[in-house]
Design goal:
229 residues, alpha/beta, Alpha-Beta Plaits, Pectate Lyase C-like, 2 domains, 6-stranded mixed sheet, 5-stranded mixed sheet
């Protein structure tokens, strides 16, 4: 008699998930004060968001790190994992995230000259409105929306973001270190716009720029916004 293999509902599946990455700076008290200022202007900025904390380059003791996690938790910031730390330094309250070997080799390899003809970026074209609660992520190029972006929606792009309708919600261009990225829209009503980590929230946007066609860009460390004719 042959034995039948018992069925099981326990399965594994690979997946890719997106999270915001916070990179604290010292002194931590000043950095936390900046977080408080952001939350005061935009209370729902971290709502329903998973967050990774990157402590690479920081000399944090176990106690200081755990205190930092407590402070972030008090502010309603959910920490999905920690990057850039020695896993033996902490007590396992959050998972340790290790970069892939491919990413490590990119960071340590000798510089390579770019080819004369660059490879095309994987830009994203969206022809339907981006609804509230939707998250659009394009890690390799620009995002173009031939419609409007609703309040509560979020667009994250490594390149520039173009919105041919009303821009509400939050837009993060140059999200992976591209200071030349720009943001364009036909009508600005955004809750937050950011380029390479430099951001402006709705309360900081001049009245003459609201509901106007604009472009935004970085000038050094300053995020600039101007109307377009």
């Amino acid at each position: 008699m042959s034995a039948e293999r018992p069925s099981t509902s326990f399965k594994f599946r690979g997946g890719c998930f997106h999270a915001l990455v916070l990179k604290p700076e010292t002194p931590l008290s000043t950095w936390l004060a900046d977080v408080d200022a952001l939350l005061a202007r935009s209370p729902g900025f971290f709502a329903e968001k998973s967050v990774v904390i990157d402590v690479s380059g920081l000399s944090l003791t176990r106690k200081i790190f755990l205190d930092l996690l407590d402070e972030l938790s008090k502010r309603g910031i959910r920490i999905l994992g920690v990057e850039g730390a020695n896993p033996s330094d902490f007590d396992g309250r959050v998972p340790f995230l290790a970069r892939s070997q491919t990413e490590k080799s990119k960071s340590t390899a000798a510089p390579v000259l770019a080819p004369s003809t660059p490879s095309p970026a994987s830009s994203l074209l969206i022809e339907a409105p981006v609804r509230s609660g939707q998250l659009v992520v394009c890690p390799d190029g620009d995002v173009t929306v031939v419609a409007s972006v609703a309040s509560g929606a979020e667009i994250v792009a490594s390149g520039s973001v173009h919105v041919y309708g009303t821009l509400r919600g939050r837009v993060l261009a140059g999200a992976y270190g591209n200071q030349r990225a720009r943001i364009f829209c036909r009508r600005l009503e955004a809750e937050l716009i950011a380029i390479d980590g430099h951001y402006i929230v709705a309360d900081e946007i001049g009245i003459h720029l609201r509901q106007a066609p604009i472009q935004a860009w970085l000038d050094g460390d300053a995020l600039k916004i101007a109307t377009m004719a």
